């Protein structure tokens, strides 16, 4: 594998200064074609090629899409890759399709038009009330698109007509991330109000082609028993090690998946209790997610390609039985059976908050047991899925067999990360940053393992998943932290004057 900061002019303003890059996405079946967007109000389409011998990436410019009047916050290709959806600060969603000739607009640049190798035009426009759109996601059948906006709303549009079909204001602050279930049963939204809203498709209305979508649950706090008044609550977990570079070089892994106790339950009805506060002598509650002071525009969750898992960023974990302990940054894992109740596990060990999660579209065979991998799988499914978590300062790459990061890349950028994207074959991971640059991690097929040959169907209609996941283990072990474990809730540092060289960290053999 090779990690590299791609030093080219991505997005820039009238003074030729780099503007932030807010999102990136690969086109399915597009032969490594991808799109980026940023603070200059434009979308650019590129092609990623690589020298197989030394894994040196090469970026080819293809086109510039100019229609937005303000910054563009998100780009997402449809599941088949033939339509590109973009949304930004003016609140309008544009759906783009390839064109044989340029469609000139006032925002076009003559130089960019001369260099363009392909053209795109707007097919459909989805209009809202003008609130900034932070995140969008396609339905599996490409019939609908969901958007989360700054006016605390979630909106769903018909992608053929642009008609607004659904609108709700269940959040109390900005909606910074949305995800559409591949099995077409749930829509999930994440907000800076510290909550995760889970919507479920119900029986279709007679007078509407769009199924009824109801709020199933609003997950924002977890409640557990106070250890001072009862038996200590415990979490079955392994020892957690530091994420610092020296510790990663000394240990084979930097963090683990911590199973939450089965008796921990989300309290959805009572008023919010301050973090670490108590409702009574035996109950303690704390918020699951960071509040609105988190310095990021985005909290981007993601479903696994088979729809069995949901991972949400921006988590804050307070250890059970230790209400006065410093909370840790985490990402929470939900299964389909727990998606409306509580997370079943947490991924800890981050020095900064998690911003975005993205699953690779490729499934892999399970690895055989060795001294570096456990004999049993962490999640009981017959294949491995790989996913990446972008924190403000680093990217962690996991697989579902061990739920431990097998790769970590740090010091790629001097400002916070914003988005992630996997290529169609799962060998390229792109990352975007506020500093105006993109980074890439290129894998060889041998590093990721053998492809899972059996077909895993993802139906377009609601269905029950074929594979079930185990329930959390019974709490029979006390949580123990290493003596040198220390995580600080640092605010994002100021941009440095010079770029720091990438520091990819590998497991020791």
TrEMBL record:
Listed Basic and acidic residues bias regions: 475-494
Family: Belongs to the WD repeat HIR1 family.
Keyword Repeat: yes
GO CC terms: CAF-1 complex; nuclear replication fork
Alphabetical UniProt keywords: Chromatin regulator, DNA damage, DNA repair, Nucleus, Repeat, WD repeat
WD repeat residue intervals: 65-96, 126-167
UniProt record, GO biological process: DNA repair; DNA replication-dependent chromatin assembly; mitotic recombination-dependent replication fork processing; nucleosome assembly
Region annotation (Disordered) ranges: 467-509
Residue ranges of domain CAF1B/HIR1 beta-propeller in the record: 1-215, 277-448
Annotated protein name in UniProt: CAF assembly factor complex subunit B
Localization in the cell: Nucleus
Record's keyword annotation contains Membrane: no
């Amino acid at each position: 594998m090779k990690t590299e900061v791609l030093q080219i002019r991505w997005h820039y303003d009238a003074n030729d200064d780099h503007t932030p890059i807010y999102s990136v996405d690969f086109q399915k079946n597009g032969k490594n074609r991808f799109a980026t967007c940023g603070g200059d109000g434009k979308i650019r389409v590129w092609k990623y090629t690589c020298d197989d011998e030394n894994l040196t990436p090469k970026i080819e410019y293809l086109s510039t899409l100019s229609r937005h009047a303000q910054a563009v916050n998100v780009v997402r290709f449809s599941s088949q890759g033939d339509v590109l959806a973009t949304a930004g600060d003016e609140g309008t969603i544009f759906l783009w399709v390839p064109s044989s000739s340029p469609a000139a607009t006032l925002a076009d640049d003559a130089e960019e038009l001369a260099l363009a190798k392909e053209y795109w035009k707007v097919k459909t426009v989805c209009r809202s009330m003008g609130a900034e759109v932070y995140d969008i996601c396609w339905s599996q059948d490409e019939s609908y698109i969901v958007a989360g906006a700054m006016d605390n709303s979630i909106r769903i549009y018909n992608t053929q007509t642009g008609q607004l079909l659904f609108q709700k204001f269940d959040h109390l602050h900005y909606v910074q991330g949305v995800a559409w279930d591949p099995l077409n049963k749930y829509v999930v939204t994440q907000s800076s109000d510290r909550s995760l809203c889970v919507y479920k498709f119900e029986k279709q209305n007679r007078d509407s082609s769009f199924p009824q979508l109801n709020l199933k649950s609003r997950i924002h706090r977890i409640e557990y028993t106070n250890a001072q008044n009862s038996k200590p609550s415990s979490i079955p977990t392994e020892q957690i090690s530091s994420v610092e570079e020296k510790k990663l070089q000394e240990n084979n892994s930097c963090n683990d998946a911590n199973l939450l106790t089965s008796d921990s339950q989300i309290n959805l009805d009572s008023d919010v209790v301050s973090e670490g506060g108590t409702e009574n002598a035996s109950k303690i509650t704390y918020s699951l997610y960071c509040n609105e002071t988190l310095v990021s525009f985005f909290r981007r969750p993601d479903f696994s390609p088979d729809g069995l898992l949901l991972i949400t960023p921006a988590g804050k974990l307070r250890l059970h039985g230790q209400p006065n302990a410093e909370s840790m940054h985490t990402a929470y894992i939900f299964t389909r059976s727990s998606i409306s109740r509580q997370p079943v596990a947490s991924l800890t060990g981050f020095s900064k908050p998690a911003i975005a999660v993205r699953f690779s579209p490729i499934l892999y065979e399970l690895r055989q047991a060795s001294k570096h991998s456990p004999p049993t799988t962490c999640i009981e499914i017959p294949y491995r899925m790989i996913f990446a978590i972008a924190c403000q300062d680093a990217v962690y790459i996991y697989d579902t067999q061990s739920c431990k990061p097998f790769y970590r890349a740090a010091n790629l950028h001097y400002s916070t990360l914003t988005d992630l994207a996997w290529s169609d074959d799962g060998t390229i991971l792109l990352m975007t940053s506020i500093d105006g640059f993109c980074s890439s991690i290129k894998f060889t097929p041998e590093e990721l393992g053998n492809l899972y040959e059996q077909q895993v169907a993802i139906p377009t209609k609601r269905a029950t998943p074929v594979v079930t996941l185990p329930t959390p283990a019974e709490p029979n072990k006390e949580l123990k932290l290493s003596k040198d474990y220390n995580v600080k809730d640092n605010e994002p540092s100021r941009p440095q004057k010079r770029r720091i060289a990438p520091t990819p960290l590998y497991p020791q053999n």
